[in-house]
């Protein structure tokens, strides 16, 4: 083969760019008239599009013999250009910056005729059926795919490894599978990024995963508790239906899951109530009704030693409020704005009243005034209710009962959970009769359409106002890895686990659970915590499934089975990828802490 002419392929073009421009330069110099010197600031070398380079190669190198054995390997990584760094991930919620990627195909921002010739947006999707699912999930010992990849990251300040479909859909709507490495912004230089990505691509090829690429991006993994700073007998948490007029207020003052909670000592650090549980122990066989959430929601990280906490009746209670301070302020502003609009409406009606000239005009005005006064009265009642819980003590609904110490458990996940003993005095109904209900209203139209197209047999009114879903049973770890469902991915036609959650900030969202577990790394200054995570993306591939403030939210299937609890997310400002701890693991860890546990 060395004696036959070899025409460059697309990878050859990419790696011979510098040689191309040098030869073009030579051709330009030969053709330039000697009597006309080049201007002082003239740039002879120019960056060419991939199409232009191909044409130049065809003309100049058509008969040139190239020894391909001297070329760099095709799995050599590419350092991102300035445009790639800023726009490669356009479409993802947090728009992370690309550092390096494998593959030799030149990248340019594609445009779509379907969107008015605007730039296309990248999307995320679950992997589906692929050999990497078993290869990555089922072995992490020496010589395994996961072990070799994590070993290649040694010395890097990495934050997460995700295996997802990322990119632009092909003609069949399918996205490419990518091993995506996240590193802390500003901590990894481009050369180091390219070398590491090249190593990881070689590892993928060793395991015959040649259809996968590797990319490194700047992105942080953070807990999803909110951190926005801010500035009569109280009502009980209601079991009444959630209304349309005051949806947020009714929800946040209800006994449903998915509501805002916060520590009494740090009321602006908000999270979400996950589930109600009943627990017993050898020392106390009487059931204690508790609410489950993340440890970092009830104990601010800056003040948390990470050690086991067990409530001692001789010590002050660590009280928890519902809702938190930010959410309460938002509810109060909503009512104030409503009343202001009512007052404006009444003022305009009264101003027009002086122009009434007939009995019919007068009758119409009185009817309008009655309606406006009635709406204002509704607003005043809502304001009275909020005024009755305007102080922190009036919003306390429980206290921390137990929190497991931080650590990596035998199943390779990080323990980050706490139990809140709830106070009967704060609930309308007996706490022993509570159930885990999630409000299914207020889902946006796009998510409704996508969900209906993927979930078979979904009732038409599933997301209508007033609809609630009672949670029961568990989604097993085995089903997370290999979904056994009639639901079909819109892009792959593979079985897909469609899940939902209601978080106190982002509300109700629908997502797709990824079959491949993610791996995250958290450093506390003394040690690294490397843990497995259940990875979830939004159903449309380009929105966020969760936001800061959603830590503790319960992830569940649309059949009501419980999947897990949200703990963190991967992305800058808002997460592209949401991480949750499987409920199967959580319940086992609660049992390992000396409790018998029942999901209400």
Describe the structure.
This is Peptidase S1 domain-containing protein. InterPro entries: Peptidase_S1_PA. Residues 27-47 are annotated as: Disordered. By secondary structure, this protein is of the alpha+beta class. The chain has three domains: 10-70, no CATH class; 78-219, no CATH class; 223-600, no CATH class. Helices cover 27% and strands 24% of the residues. Strands 10, 11, 12, 13, 14, 15, 16, 17 and 27 form a nine-stranded antiparallel beta sheet that branches. Mean pLDDT is 81; it is low at 1-74 and 229-233.
What's this model, at a glance?
InterPro entries: Peptidase_S1_PA. This is Peptidase S1 domain-containing protein. By secondary structure, the chain is an alpha+beta fold.
Q: What brief labels describe this structure?
A:
600 residues, alpha+beta, 3 domains, nine-stranded antiparallel beta sheet, six-stranded antiparallel beta barrel, Peptidase S1 domain-containing protein, Peptidase_S1_PA
């Amino acid at each position: 083969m060395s004696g036959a002419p070899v025409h460059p392929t697309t990878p050859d073009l990419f790696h011979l760019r510098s040689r191309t421009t040098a030869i073009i330069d030579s051709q330009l110099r030969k053709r330039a008239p000697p009597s006309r010197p080049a201007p002082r600031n003239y740039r002879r070398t120019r960056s060419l599009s991939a199409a232009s380079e191909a044409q130049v190669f065809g003309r100049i190198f058509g008969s040139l013999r190239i020894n391909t054995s001297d070329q760099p390997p095709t799995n050599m990584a590419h350092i991102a250009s300035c445009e790639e760094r800023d726009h490669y991930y356009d479409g993802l919620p947090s728009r992370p910056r690309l550092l390096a990627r494998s593959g030799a195909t030149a990248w340019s921002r594609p445009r779509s005729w379907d969107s008015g010739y605007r730039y296309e947006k990248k999307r995320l999707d679950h992997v589906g059926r692929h050999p990497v699912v078993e290869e990555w999930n089922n072995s992490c010992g020496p010589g395994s795919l996961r072990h070799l990849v994590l070993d290649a990251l040694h010395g890097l300040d990495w934050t997460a490894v995700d295996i997802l479909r990322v990119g632009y859909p092909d003609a069949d709507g399918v996205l490419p599978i990518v091993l995506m490495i996240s590193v802390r912004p500003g901590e990894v230089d481009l050369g180091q990024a390219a070398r590491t990505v090249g190593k990881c691509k070689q590892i993928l090829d060793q395991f015959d995963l040649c259809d996968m690429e590797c990319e490194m991006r700047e992105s942080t993994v953070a807990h999803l508790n909110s951190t926005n700073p801010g500035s009569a007998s109280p009502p009980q948490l209601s079991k009444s239906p959630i209304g349309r007029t005051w949806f947020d207020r009714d929800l946040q003052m209800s006994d449903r899951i998915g509501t805002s909670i916060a520590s009494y000592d740090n009321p602006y650090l908000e999270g979400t109530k996950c589930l109600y549980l009943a627990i017993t122990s050898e020392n106390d066989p009487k059931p204690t009704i508790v609410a489950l959430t993340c440890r970092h929601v009830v104990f601010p990280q800056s003040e948390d030693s990470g050690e086991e906490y067990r409530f001692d009746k001789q010590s002050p209670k660590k009280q928890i409020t519902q809702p938190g301070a930010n959410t309460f302020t938002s509810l109060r502003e909503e009512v104030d704005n409503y009343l202001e609009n009512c007052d404006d409406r009444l003022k305009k009606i009264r101003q027009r009243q002086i122009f009434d000239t007939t009995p019919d005009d007068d009758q119409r005005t009185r009817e309008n005034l009655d309606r406006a006064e009635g709406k204002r009265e509704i607003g005043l009642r809502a304001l009275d209710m909020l005024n009755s819980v305007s102080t922190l003590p009036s919003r306390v609904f429980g206290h921390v009962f137990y929190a497991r110490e931080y650590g990596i458990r035998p199943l390779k996940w990080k323990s980050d959970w706490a139990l809140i003993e709830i106070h009967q005095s704060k609930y309308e109904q007996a706490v022993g009769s509570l159930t885990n209900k999630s409000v299914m209203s207020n889902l946006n139209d796009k998510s409704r359409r996508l969900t209906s197209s993927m979930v078979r047999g979904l009732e038409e009114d599933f997301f209508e106002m007033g609809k609630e879903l009672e949670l029961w049973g568990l989604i097993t770890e085995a089903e997370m890895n290999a979904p056994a469902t009639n639901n079909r991915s819109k892009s792959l036609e593979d079985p897909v686990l469609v899940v939902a959650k209601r978080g106190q900030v982002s509300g109700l969202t629908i997502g797709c659970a990824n079959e491949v577990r993610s791996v995250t790394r958290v450093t506390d200054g003394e040690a690294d915590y490397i843990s497995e995570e259940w990875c979830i993306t939004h159903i449309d591939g380009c929105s966020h499934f969760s936001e800061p403030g959603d830590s503790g939210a319960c992830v569940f299937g649309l059949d009501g089975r419980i999947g897990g609890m949200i703990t963190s997310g991967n992305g800058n400002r808002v997460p592209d990828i949401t991480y949750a701890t499987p409920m199967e693991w959580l319940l086992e860890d609660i049992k390992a802490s000396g409790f018998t546990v029942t999901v209400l």
